[in-house]
Amino acid sequence: MNSRKKRRLAFVLALVAAGGVLAAAVIYQLGQNTMYFRSPTDVATGQVPEGVAFRLGGLVAAGSVARGPGAQVRFAVSDGQHAVPVTFKGVLPALFREGQGVVTLGAVNGTGNFIATEVLAKHDEKYMPPEVVESLKRSGHWKEGEQ
Amino acid sequence: MTGELGQVALCFALALSLVMAGAGLAGVRQANAAARGIAVSATLGLLVFTALAFGALTYAYVTSDFSIQTVANNSNTLKPLIYRISGVWGNHEGSMLLWLLVLALYAALVALLGRGGPRLTSGAVGLQGLLAVAFLLFILFTSTPFLRLDPAPFEGAGLNPLLQDIGLALHPPMLYAGYVGLSASFAYAAAALMVGERGWARAARPFMLLAWIALTCGIALGSWWAYYELGWGGFWFWDPVENASLMPWLIATALLHSALATERSGAFRTWSLLLAITGFSLSLIGTFLVRSGVLSSVHSFASDPARGFFIMVLIALAIGGALALFALRAHTLQGGASFEPVSRETTLLLNNVFLVAACACVFVGTLYPLVLDAVSGTKISVGPPYYALTFAPIFFALLLLVPLGPRLGWKRGDLKAAWRALYPALGLAGVAALAVLALISPRTVTATLAFAVAGWLIGASLLDIRKRKGARASAFAAALAHAGLGVTLMGVAGTTAWRSEALEVLGPGQTMQVGPYILRFDGVARVEGPNYIADQGRLALMDGGKVKAMLRPEQRFYPAENQSVSDTAIRTTGLRDLYVALGDDRGQGRFAIRAYVSPLAPFIWLGGLVMALGGILSLFGRLRLRAPAPEDAAESQAQAAE
Fold it and tell me: Of the N and C termini of chain A, which has fewer Cβ atoms inside 10 Å?
């Protein structure tokens, strides 16, 4: 084996090793940083562990929005079967309305409240986030052609 | 009438693109003046007819011709003229037509100005003709913008208010100029494989540069828009749609660098081909992700399975065909010059390794949720921490190496001399780090490191610019682009580490503090825009007892679209932004108000602009200089050495 070939081999081995490290890091980080999407029924039936962040999607239940104290807002996210109480401190998106589809990010605390860190509802009134559609379909409250 | 005219123009365009593909590919076997003439004429014809169709659609939007379905669905008479025009591409059908127009433009540029052998140019034109055929079929069969409505509605439905914004009016054309620009590199690469042409990288370079400049501007515009429009104060969300534009940029950047070595010494020739193919493939995949409706965002206009399927087939054919060609023919182009471990080539190689690895991280993070959903029905999302821990360290390592590259010679470099020449830059890095530690709190390791690296990058660029006066424009251009990276890095680090944020519910006369600023809420007034009514908050920026400035964030309601969006108020000193968004009405004249102080935020986009300027300079320097091809000389030397 001449020196040029040796060098090439060393380079390829280094590249393979680096690739391996990268792949391991990517897989590990994916495992650590994925957020599952859950429906209110999942939460109500106790399928979601406390304190683990996830995305909760559904409709903002009618008559559930209560503002205050301060910047705090409370509302419920429902899929027609169950409703989960949500507490959020922050500015609601402009399209947040009762009866509209919403996706919230956060975790369930000890008392079964969902503490949201983010509320997403940046779609227009004709549009339903796919996650919410999924949530309604699962609970059997999805009407075809609703969109 | 105009609608039908547009439709007919598209049919003509289809016929011409077929001629273009046929004549272009016929010129691959053997240089053929007649075939070339036909291909060039057909390309120009394609441009003319596509422009006609696009013009017809634009006319329909401007005159609010609601008998055309896309106009009725995406426009109305109340919209200001600029958003009537931008509404043309604010929907699926029109945006595909824009894509085609840009493709025709690039094809005409290749046909008229493309350098390189006649067979190579002919092949590139022919392949772009094939792409035009595919997109025309797609438009005519699944998404024609000229469908008529009978009876025509009296008023149109309007455009998503989020898209009624100057940033988003310009963002899609820019991004498309980038995506489609990569199709020119792709066509050149595939043609080079067919012809066996070794000098393809030189011929394709102006198009790579154009695509890269447009992508850089497009991404910066998109990020800027997200910052001021979405009201979260963030500039990058690692949203799959954003990632879809970032991936082609990363690969285009890698291609620019590897093609440099290919052009110069013939190194990485096949690798550059592969990058050119990958870059355009990622553009297509990005279009698929964004347009097929698998992702939920303001970008997904329509979810029609037929369209998704068509784009999938197109992607499979383009990528599969190109890769098959690569597998069969790449060996004919092999045999670059060898280089020492310490050389410019090695740094370019590392640049490529890091960029491709960074792109791979983004790719996995973007597609993993989709694959998992398709396989198991589990819905997940991958959050920003994933990218912070995979993409960021890789990119950081890349930035550390950037100043070394331009200082090492081709084939064999002197690391010690390069290192010594960089002492002033190292000094600047140290000063930047110390200044950050001493002057700004809170002290964070990442911000300190980021400023050290920014100092390192900018210092090295300044050295380059000073030392190489009268040198080639390309060296100056590279220095500028690398300095831009440093500027953006400072912006990102500054906003991430030192942003202050406040959220309060205020009644009239009440004040809040954010960072060093005191804001007094002076209530809300009702104001009317051309096609919206808004609650306009009045926030006085106080300086002692006096009012220093007024900030007026708005909540706008668009009756035609029945939607609301917020419009933030930003006051910038250039070094930091005071950013205020008006939240929801809490009754009794009280409103939720969110305010941020983002230090160095403007640097994020300023850096993008500097990078793009570097690209533009490189493009024009190249067009002006027309330096003789050094590759052949380098190659014969290399062969003699072996």
Answer: N
